[in-house]
């Protein structure tokens, strides 16, 4: 079928978010992206020509507070690799869970990057891979399987919801896949449908191809699209964690421009020449240099010439420099202690934890919100693949942002508790992992098998037999 007016426009709600999203993305991308935007972030000084503005733009420094904070927050969340509980048979599925072959951790990092910058991200579990497959064997024979496609928030045209059985559900989702293609996800008569709107180059009409995805031969009664937000709730964009910092980063940029421009024009001494009858002299005629004598013909004691250098004086420049310093300190407050200078004095672990508690609570809340949505998407992938129950799938991002390795005394106590039969060996391994004495990838079963193997194959040292001592030998 064809339609001359397909839904290809952004809804007002999503379109209104684009300027803030672009600003934060640019601030994270850094100096090249910011300066490529030109006057969007650095207004032209009144009366500046194009060439003058280009030089002005080039010499103004850019302080990357947003990108540093973004990298720091990602580093905190992924300081410990995320965990994914799943049956052994799904290992290969989650090692290539996206259409382009990335694993679940790569997907989680991309989603987290989106959420920090824009407050949201989209995940579509694609049913096309299992449209005709009634079981896992058929899916593998056909070379297909379910996977998760991430949609950046900028590609979401609209989300429409309704209430079914007192629960808010998605009724319609439009996703812009390219300038010439839009994927529309619909729930009509309680049946999930997919319409792909495609326009050929040079044509105005869109061709619409409709399919009804099925799993085990049955259509779905829900849209398998998950809208991930920083709060973990609803289907509307929310304020991004880095929104305020990115806006403030523009402020720092302009403060630096004022200070740099002032230094540029005031740091070098300015030559001045004062006297009568100078109208016949041009600037090119006057050369002041070491060993050079400048003569002004026709001038006498009655018509003296005064030549001197004028230098900038006053506190104006320092005011501008202080404004830059203050703006950077404000960015440090907004962006957490990642940007703040380390304290010179030794700080107790408890004090350090309290100082960063508010930051950690925000980041931890974001990590938990992302974990919940990714868990839901992974559960659908597993269910479609081989019928795995949702309770067998659990995903979790790290929320322990203050590394505090277990001390030797505590480790000795835990091992003594195990030796005394107070806890199992598996519990001991888990506690040691949480205490960061063992890597997070430590596998208890693999380690137990390795220990058993070593006990059979290791070359034990041998010692000569000790002769027995009899009473007679002792002279008794």
What does this structure look like?
By secondary structure, the chain is α+β, with helices and mostly antiparallel strands. Helices cover 39% and strands 18% of the residues. It contains 15 helices and 15 strands. The chain has helices spanning 12-15, 18-29, 31-36, 50-59, 65-77, 91-95, 104-118, 136-141, 243-266, 316-335, 349-355, 357-386, 408-419, 425-434, 444-457, and strands at residues 2-3, 83-85, 120-126, 147-151, 156-164, 167-178, 181-188, 191-199, 206-211, 214-215, 218-219, 225-229, 270-275, 305-310, 394-396. The chain has a six-stranded antiparallel beta sheet with strand order 1-9-8-7-6-5. A three-stranded antiparallel beta sheet has the order 4-3-12. A two-stranded antiparallel sheet has the order 2-15. A hairpin with a 6-residue loop joins strand 8 (191-199) and strand 9. Helix 2 (18-29) crosses helix 5 and helix 13 (408-419) packs antiparallel against helix 14. The longest helix is centred in the last third of the chain and has 30 residues, at 357-386. It is flat. It starts with a strand and ends in a 19-residue tail after the last helix.
Q: What labels describe this entry?
A:
single chain, 476 residues, three-stranded antiparallel beta sheet, 15 helices
Concise synopsis of the structure shown:
The chain has 476 residues and is α+β, with helices and mostly antiparallel strands.
Main sheet? Answer: 6 strands, antiparallel
Oligomer type: single chain
User: Beta-strand level of the residues, as a percent range?
Assistant: 15-25%
N-to-C order of helices and strands: EHHHHHEHHEHEEEEEEEEEHEEHHHEHHH
Helical content (DSSP H or I, runs of 4+):
25-40%
Shape: flat
Strand segment tally? 15
Averaged pLDDT: 79
The strands making up the biggest β-sheet line up spatially as 1-9-8-7-6-5
Number of helices: 15
Q: Report the end-to-end length measured between terminal Cα atoms.
A: 113 Å
């Amino acid at each position: 079928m064809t339609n001359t007016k397909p839904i290809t426009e952004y809804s007002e709600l999503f379109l209104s978010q684009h300027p803030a999203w672009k600003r934060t993305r640019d601030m994270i991308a850094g100096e090249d992206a910011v300066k490529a935007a030109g006057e969007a972030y650095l207004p032209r000084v009144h009366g500046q020509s194009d060439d003058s503005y280009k030089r002005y733009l080039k010499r103004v420094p850019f302080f990357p507070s947003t990108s540093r904070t973004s990298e720091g927050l990602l580093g905190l969340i992924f300081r410990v690799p995320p965990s994914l509980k799943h049956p052994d048979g799904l290992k290969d599925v989650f090692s290539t869970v996206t259409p382009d072959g990335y694993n679940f951790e790569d997907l989680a990092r991309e989603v987290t990057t989106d959420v920090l910058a824009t407050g949201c991200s989209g995940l579509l579990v694609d049913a096309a891979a299992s449209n005709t497959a009634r079981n896992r064997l058929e899916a593998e024979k056909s070379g297909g399987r379910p996977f998760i496609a991430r949609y950046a928030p900028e590609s979401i045209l609209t989300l429409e919801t309704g209430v079914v059985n007192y629960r808010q559900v998605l009724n319609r989702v439009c996703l812009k896949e390219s300038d010439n293609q839009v994927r529309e996800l619909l729930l009509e008569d309680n049946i999930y449908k997919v319409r792909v709107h495609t326009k050929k180059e040079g044509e105005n009409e869109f061709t619409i191809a409709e399919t009804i995805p099925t799993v085990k031969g049955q259509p779905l009664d829900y849209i398998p699209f998950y809208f991930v937000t920083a709060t973990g709730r609803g289907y509307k964009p929310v304020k991004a964690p880095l929104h305020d910092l990115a806006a403030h980063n523009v402020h720092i940029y302009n403060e630096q421009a004022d200070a740099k421009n002032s230094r540029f024009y005031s740091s070098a001494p300015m030559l001045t020449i004062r006297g009568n009858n100078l109208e016949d002299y041009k600037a090119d005629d006057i050369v002041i240099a070491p060993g050079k004598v400048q003569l002004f013909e026709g001038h006498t004691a009655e018509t003296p010439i005064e030549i001197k250098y004028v230098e900038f004086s006053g506190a104006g420049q320092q005011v501008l420099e202080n404004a830059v310093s203050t703006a950077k300190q404000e960015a440090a407050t907004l962006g957490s202690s990642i940007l703040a200078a380390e304290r010179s004095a030794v700080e107790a672990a408890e004090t350090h934890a309290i100082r960063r508690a508010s930051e950690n609570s925000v980041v931890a809340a974001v990590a938990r919100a992302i974990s919940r949505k990714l868990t839901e998407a992974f559960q659908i992938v597993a269910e479609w693949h081989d019928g795995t129950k949702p309770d067998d799938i659990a995903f979790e991002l790290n929320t322990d942002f203050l590394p505090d390795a277990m001390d030797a005394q505590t480790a000795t106590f835990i091992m003594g508790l195990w030796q005394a039969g107070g806890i199992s060996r598996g519990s001991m391994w888990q506690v040691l992992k949480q205490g960061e004495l063992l890597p997070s990838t430590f596998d208890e079963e693999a380690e137990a098998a390795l220990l058993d193997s070593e006990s059979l194959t290791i070359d034990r040292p041998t010692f000569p037999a000790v002769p027995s001592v009899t009473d007679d030998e002792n002279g008794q």
